[in-house]
Amino acid sequence: MANLKIGDRVKIPVHKVFHQESGHFGKVVYISEDGETVTVKCDRKHNGKTVAFNIAFSSIRE
Ligand SMILES: [Zn+2]
Q1: In angstroms, what is the span from residue 39 Cα to ligand 1's centroid?
Q2: Which terminus of the chain faces fewer neighbouring Cβ atoms within 10 Å, N or C?
Q3: CB contact at 8 A, 4 and 29
């Protein structure tokens, strides 16, 4: 997944504060200029809301 781009679907890693549910996928909506951080919008609702998470790029490269 070295060439991640806007619109790609990725598995959202579990984060103990921001994203506790496993097995969720989302779409990349933003990649930081330095390529270190991506913003992923989760496909699933969280408490009835659509949410986006900032994720370290290294944590979604598998
Ligand atoms: Zn989610």
Answers
A1: 13
A2: C
A3: no
Over the chain (62 residues), what is each successive 10-residue block's mean pLDDT? Answer: 84 89 96 93 95 88 58
Q: How far is the CA of 23 from the centre of ligand 1 (A)?
A: 8
Contact at 8 Å (CB) between 55 and 32? no
Contacts of 38 (CB under 8 A, 6+ apart): 4, 10, 28, 30, 31, 32, 54, 55, 57, 60
State the pTM of this model. Answer: 0.85
**57 Cα to the center of ligand 1, angstroms:** 17
